[in-house]
Structure formats: C-alpha cells, structure tokens
Write a structure and sequence with these properties.
The protein is an alpha+beta fold. Helices cover 46% and strands 14% of the residues. The protein is built from 21 helices and 19 strands. It binds adenosine-5'-diphosphate and magnesium ion.
C-alpha cells in the first residue's frame, strides 16, 4: 500500500476548516462549518465572533487590510481595500466587525449594471459568501484578507457572476431532490462539481511591451505565421523547458497555499501554450478558484519576465486556448453521472443522462451564448477547437444504450437490441482517456460531462449557471411526468415496481426520440458535420452577435425567471452588458489596428520603399544595370502595398466612424492580410515577429 503524505502548506492561506477550528470556539466553529459543508443557513449571531477570529488569523499572516472580493460583470475580479486600522480614543487599533464581514458597500457605481443602477442610486453592496473561504493575498511587503462575496444592487438584483451561479445551484438542488424522492431516496445533499482545465500562453515581456495590440487587446492583430508553428506536433506533452517548469512550480506553490488543488501541468498544442488543471471541487468554490488561478498565472509570469496571455486566440494560425469545464452532479456524495453497477443505479444514471440530453438539445442556444464573446469568436470553429454547433458526444457504448432505449420494447417481451430500464445492466463504460473524442463541444467522459466550448478567459460561472438551470428544468419536467404516472411512492428504497420502471422507460424513450438529434459521435471538426447539423435543425450561431439573440427570446426569459436565476430585468441588463462589452472590445481592436497600421507599419513601409526607390534611381542615374530588376520589383511591391494599406486605413476609419462592428471586423481582416504580406518585405519591421514571440526558451 502506498503511504500518502499530508501536504503541510496546503490551504495555509485560507480560512478553511482547520483555521476555523483553531481560531473559533467549538460551538461557533460547528455552526460555521455546517453552513460551509452542508449548505445550512448562516446564523447571523456568529458573525461578530467569526470576524474577530478571521482578523486574528489574517494578522498572524501579516495582513493589515481586508477586502470584499467579488466578480462584477466585467468578467474579472474586483476588490476595494480597507485597513483594519481605526483610531479609537486617540489610539490606533486594528478592528474588524461582524458587519464589516457580512456586508460591504463599495461605491461601485462604475461597474457595468446594464441599466439596473442609474448613478443616483449607485450603491451596490457585497454580501459574504461563507461557502468560499476567505484567503490571503500576499504582495511583496504585505498581505490582504480577501473575503469572497456576492455583489448586488440595493434592490437585491444581481450585479455579478456569483449570485446567479448560486441561484442555479439551488434550482438544480430542488429539482434533483424532487426526482430522487420519486426514486425513494432519502433527502440528501446535492453537490455540483467542476474541474476547470486552464489553457494559456506565455510570452516574453520584452516582446509584449513592443506590441500595442497585445497590451490593448490581449491578442496579436497583425503577425505573419512563422516558418515553424505547430506542424511538427512536437510541443504537445513535450519536455517542459526549465524556465517554464520553474514558473509552473511557483504558480502551484501559491495555488496550494490558497487551497487550490493544482494537479496537472503540460505543454499544449501550440508553441508557448500550456495547461494547468486542478482536481475538481464543489462548483462555486471551483469557479472562484479558477479566477484566482488566472490571477496567480498572471502575477507569477511577471516574476519570470513573462506575460501570461489568457486570450482565446493570441496568435492566428495556431491553436487557441480554451477552458474545459468538467461538470457533474452528486446526491448524498454519490456521483449521478457514474453509471453504477446495478439496474437501480443504472436507472437513475439514465434518467439524469436523458435529462441532460434533453436540456442541451432544447437550450443549445443558451449554452452557445454562455461562451460567446469577442475573444472566443476567433476560436470556436477554428483549428483544434470545438465548432460553434453544440452537440453531445457519448462514446460508442453509451450512444448504443441511448439508441436501444429510444427504440424501446414493443408489445410482449423484449425485442432484440432493446433495453429495459430497471432490469438490464449497463455495460461497463470506458473511462480511458484514449477513447475520448476531442472534437465535441460537450462530451461525456466516463463520469462527467466536459463542456469544451468555454474560452480560456471566461469566468466559469456563466456557462455553469446555464448548464445548471437547463438541467434543473429537464429534471423537473421528467420528475413531474414520473409523479403523474402514479407509479411512484409504492417503492421501498432499492426496489421499484415494474410499473414504475415502465413509466420511466416511456418517459425517457419519448424524450430521447425528440432530443437525441443533438448526439453526435463523429468528428466535430469535419466540414460535413456542419451540413449534417443543419439538416438536424441544430442551431449554429457563428458569432457573438448571433449568439446574443438567445438572451432576448421569450422562452429563455421565462426559463430563467421560472427557476429564479434571473429576473426579466436582470437578464435584460446582462444582455445589454454583453452587447456593449462585445462592441467595445471590437472597437478597441479596430482603433488599435488603425493606430498600429498608421503609426508603425505605414512609416516602416514608407522607409523601405524610399530606400529601394532611391537605390533604384541612383542605379539608373549611374547606368548600373545589375540589381535594378530586383529593386524595381521591390519598389512596385512596396508601393502598391503602401497604396493598399493607405486605402485600408481609410476604410477602417470609416467603419469606426460609422460604429459598424461587422465593417470594422472586415476592414481589420483585409488590413491584416496586407500588413502580414508586407512583413517579409521590410527589413526593419516595427513589431516583434511570431517566430520571436512563440519560442521563448
Ligand atoms: P483531460 O485533459 O484528459 O480532459 P485533465 O486531467 O486535464 O483531463 O482534466 C480533467 C478534469 O476533470 C480534472 O480537473 C478533474 O479533476 C476533473 N474531473 C474528474 N472527475 C470529475 C467529476 N466527477 N466532476 C467534475 N470534474 C471532474
Ligand atoms: Mg487536459
């Protein structure tokens, strides 16, 4: 037997179970832990004691300040620090009250609210989320206590990304409890889990500093491909260079201190691209943790003279970066996406599986919009990334099971190939990574679903909120139908009547007949699939503008309202925020591209042109024939490049003036192709090249 060894430093900078037991009285610790572990309502009377303990714990780690840490609609994290310092009766004292812990009122009027707050009623407040432990942020000469919070308007409307996630978890909790009750299961804790694989690029800071596009937009707006990209497939899982490995070690040390179980690290497909995957955790915690992972990656990169690029597509022509969201649900600690080994567990698994298939088919548009954004527009559908069509991969064996349920038993006895729920035992499904299809946006991988469409910079809460909500709906629908069949309630735990299983079988069969069109086990990158998907009637929102329409559909507004995840006003505000975010980002790119083209590229090309032209003229004057042909060709290429670039800058300007997003994107694409073709013609190119940036060892 292997002897496991405890990691002493793990979680040393979070106010988790260990610190709680150490710094709080037994009684208070017990109350707080049952809120954290069992989701019980927090007893507000303990806030004062918890705050006091937290302050001492934080001060023992060098903290002088605290902040409510939250996830505004900007997609990043936010913090406003206050010191513990208070002058009391002329004495400088370190204080932190229960009220300071529970609510904060940052004057946060400049965060996007999509019209929920006009500035005269600008106050929003932050509310402590005890289920995500407070943590210490260290910064050179000091430390700050960070308290994860939800951010709401004074009306209670959500202004952040955490609140809807928590609400969607509640919706799923309720639906699942209903369903499991019908399976005669005793009430138990519903858990959602998330393992977020994080892909990223690293680039030398000295190059980053010379690229206004990377600084302003996170991606290169220009850049010809380097001779060697990822063709040789030699980077993926390759030996990790020493400098990068040291960087990764530092990142992981910091993450472990924060109780974030960083587990896997490797080189990714594109040169200078890497991945970090933590072990999965409870969903809300894992979502917060992923925000910290991105923070830590960025901060530690600085120490190594590098920049961490979290944009979905920093470089054209090589892979983009995603953030695979591995998701599952459990009941009483048992993973419901684990098929189990007996007919009764199998029946529950197949019910949940059917509910997920139904949900994904019915609401593919919502899953799509949950991953939409200016950055991911460059990645979805591109090389080695999932296409914009949402489909489900089940693997051959499970797909066959689903097919057999869909076919159903007819009349007396079993028809060959059909499967009786509650009687037949499912075949053991492979959990082997080698069997996995890597081209599907939503794949079953043994005991979880892997949503692969989210981009590397996204906050997991968006896609996870949608997934929880749509699955809550289909589980609830199935539960209601099952209940209406009148066959429940007679069963003792572990044994169900034949009538119950027949009713269940019918319900699942009907659902699968309608929704199994979303199942696709083939190659999702194949062009034929797009045609096939269209034939099946699956939506294909090719870009963010298309995808965003989902948020204004009546049925979607009703869905979120019904499950208490977004009110009409909240959803409307989010739609507004997303539209604006998208348009602003495209505009920033447009302006940046125009500036680089006119301030850096154009002068460099002019210079090269002028020198070729001068040499050519001189050769002509002196009557030197050698070289004139080449010089003349250069003058022609550079000259026509100048003309072209000049008119393309004008076109981009016009598109910017017209505030026409589609025209801005088109004008940028045209300009990029001209600029990239000139890159090989100009000796003193003003931007670092791909061949320099992509190979950083
Ligand atoms: P791969 O790259 O082969 O998909 P990784 O090891 O990089 O695999 O990532 C798999 C992720 O899935 C890990 O974060 C892992 O903890 C997570 N995971 C495993 N089981 C579950 C589960 N039941 N629920 C959620 N996530 C899970
Ligand atoms: Mg992986």
């Amino acid at each position: 037997m292997e002897e496991a060894k405890k990691v002493t430093d793990f979680g040393s900078d979070i106010f988790g179970a260990e610190a709680i037991r150490q710094y709080l009285s037994k009684d208070t610790a017990k109350k707080l832990l049952s809120t954290i572990e069992k989701g019980e309502k927090l007893d507000p009377s303990i806030a004062g004691e918890v705050a006091h303990a937290m302050k001492h714990w934080a001060m023992d780690r060098g903290a002088t300040h605290y902040t409510h840490w939250f996830l505004p609609m900007t997609g990043s994290t936010a913090e406003k620090h206050d010191s513990f310092l208070e002058i009391k009766d002329g004495e400088p004292m370190m204080t932190f009250s229960g009220k300071n812990l529970i609510v904060g009122e940052p004057d946060a009027s400049s965060f996007p609210s999509g019209g929920i707050r006009s500035t005269f009623e600008a106050r929003g407040y932050t509310a402590w989320d005890p289920t995500s432990p407070a943590f210490i942020k260290r910064h050179g000469n000091g430390a700050t206590l960070c308290i994860p919070t939800a951010f709401c308007a004074y009306t209670g409307e959500a202004l952040d990304k955490k609140t809807p996630l928590l609400r969607s978890m509640q919706a799923l909790d309720k639906s699942l409890k209903h369903l499991m009750g019908l399976f005669a299961k005793a009430p138990a804790h519903v858990g959602c889990t998330l393992g977020a694989e994080q892909e990223y690029f690293l680039v030398d800071k000295k190059y980053w500093e010379q690229r206004p596009d990377l600084i302003m937009t996170g991606r290169t707006l220009f850049g010809a491909p380097s001779a060697k990209g990822q063709q040789l497939e030699d980077h993926y899982f390759g030996t990790i260079p020493n400098r990068i490995l040291s960087f990764m070690n530092d990142v992981e040390k910091e993450l472990w201190r924060l109780g974030i179980p960083a587990k896997t690290r490797h080189n990714e497909v594109a040169p200078a691209q890497f991945e970090l995957a933590p072990q999965f955790e409870e969903l809300n915690l894992a979502s917060d943790h992923n925000m910290l992972v991105m923070d830590v990656l960025r901060n530690v990169a600085e120490k190594y003279g590098m920049k961490c690029l979290l944009h979905e597509k920093p470089y054209a022509g090589v892979n983009g970066s995603g953030k695979h969201n591995n998701w599952s649900v459990s009941y009483g600690g048992k993973n419901l996406l684990d098929p189990g080994t007996n007919p009764s567990d199998n029946a529950i698994f197949l019910t949940v599986l059917t509910a997920i298939i139904e949900a994904v088919d019915k609401h593919a548009d919502l899953l799509r919009v949950s991953v939409a954004g200016a950055g991911n527009d460059h990645r979805l559908g591109a090389n080695e990334a999932p296409p914009a069509v949402i489909s489900i991969y089940l693997g051959d064996q499970l797909a066959e099971v689903v097919e057999r349920i869909e076919k159903g038993t007819s009349g007396k006895g079993k028809k060959a190939g059909s499967l009786s729920i509650g009687v037949d035992i499912l075949p053991a499904l492979p959990k082997d990574a080698t069997d996995r299809n890597r081209t599907s946006p939503f794949a079953f991988t043994g005991n979880k679903f892997e949503f692969r469409a989210p981009g590397s910079s996204v906050c997991c809460s968006g896609p996870m909120t949608v997934l929880n909500t749509i699955v809550a709906e289909s589980i609830e629908r199935i539960a209601c139908e099952l209940e209406a069949s009148g066959t429940c309630g007679k069963a003792k735990p572990g044994e169900h009547t034949t009538a119950f299983h027949k009713a269940l079988q019918n319900i699942l069969q009907t659902s699968l007949k309608e929704h199994s069109r979303v199942v696709f086990n083939g190659n999702g990158y194949d062009a034929d699939w797009l045609a096939e998907a269209a034939k099946r009637g699956l939506p294909n929102a090719a870009n963010t503008t298309e995808a965003l329409k989902a948020l204004t559909k009546k049925e979607n507004i009703a869905l979120f309202k019904k499950y208490g995840v977004f009110s009409d006003r909240e959803l409307k505000s989010r739609h507004e925020i997303f539209v604006e975010d998208y348009e602003t980002r495209v505009r920033i790119e447009g302006v940046c591209a125009r500036d680089i083209a006119s301030e850096m590229i154009l002068p460099a090309v002019k210079k090269e042109y002028a020198s070729s032209l001068a040499a050519f003229a001189q050769a002509e004057t002196l009557g030197v024939a050698a070289g004139t042909a080449a010089l003349k060709a250069d003058v022609t290429t550079l000259g026509s490049g100048l003309d072209k670039l000049g008119s393309e800058i004008a076109a981009l300007d016009a598109a910017l003036d017209a505030h026409d997003n589609a025209a801005i994107i088109d004008a940028m694409a045209a300009m990029r192709s001209t600029v990239d073709s000139l890159e090989h013609k100009v000796a003193a190119w003003p931007l670092p090249k791909y061949r320099e940036m992509l190979f950083l060892y």
